[in-house]
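We examine the record.

___
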Amino acid sequence: METKKSDRIKLIQQALQDQKAIHLREMAALLGVSEMTLRRDLNRHTDEFRLLGGHITRVFDANEASDYRVTEQDARHVEEKRRIGKLGAAFIQPGDTVFFDCGTTIPFVVDFIPEELEFTAVCNSLNVLLKLQQKPNCNIVLCGGTFHRKNQVFESHAETGILDGVRLTWAFLSAAGVSQEFGVTCFNLNEVEVKQKVLRQAQQSILLVDHSKFDAVRTAHFASLGDFHYVISDKKIPSLYRDLVSAQGKQLVV
């Protein structure tokens, strides 16, 4: 569905918080408009945005973005995460209570939640909190505690008590590795308790992982693929895992 011009500008601004540039074609596809429509939008905001080599960048980043093609491989991963975020945001309905995990994919879900949508968000990470506070109709519950700079997570034994007091409609969780043999893993042991808690308590749980996470195994195991109701990934997900998700009666969204 096509987005309104004002919403398109806000989504471009949010996209450029996470990276210095994004391809015009990719952004047009995400917004559901033609490249020509998006070019017209940008031409009305030349004080803020600029097109360089087919990429949208902010005016004050233009000089730094000249080497963007060199890092295009990394940008493609970000664009895939953004697509995953858009698919995830579509699940959230007015009045829902949603847990947002830590990680680099989760903030993209928040980007695509309409500003007029009223919902309650529960989170335990700084990067997600900074995104949620931009949503004017979002009530935020922060699981506080000791702040770990490495993964931007707040950890406290009290936070699981906070989770006992809420009823989650959805839980969006991220992972650093998904393996047929070793299950779903992340880098940090201090994330495990909360991830497992929300998996038990949420009415519906969603795993958000791009294709690069499959066949990878990280330090901390917290779930198996069968523990999730949905898996959202990109079209490059290996066929082995497409079949595995289907065989376990779960829904794959790409």
Summary: The longest strand covers residues 119-123.
